[in-house]
Amino acid sequence: MTVTVYAKPRCPQCEATKRQLTRQGIGFDVVDVTADASALARIKAAGFLQAPVVMTEDASWSGYRPDLIRALVKQPHQVLA
Fold this sequence. Notes:
CATH class: Alpha Beta
Number of strands: 4
Radius of gyration: 12 Å
CATH architecture: 3-Layer(aba) Sandwich
Order of helices and strands: EHEHEEH
Number of domains: 1
């Protein structure tokens, strides 16, 4: 499973999301949307207006969502949102 976290510096929700993913043993890539204008444009085009944005092959959401992160561990191929 590929997990990408679109985040920005000094973002408490972004840091909490990364900590929870790490705690759950889920590997992830981080994209800094303040340094990557095309990534910022992609997530805005997808309708997201707040960081972090978490994307997998089957799901995507914004904000700190520990419930959805835990669901990734239990059912990694289920559509979550």
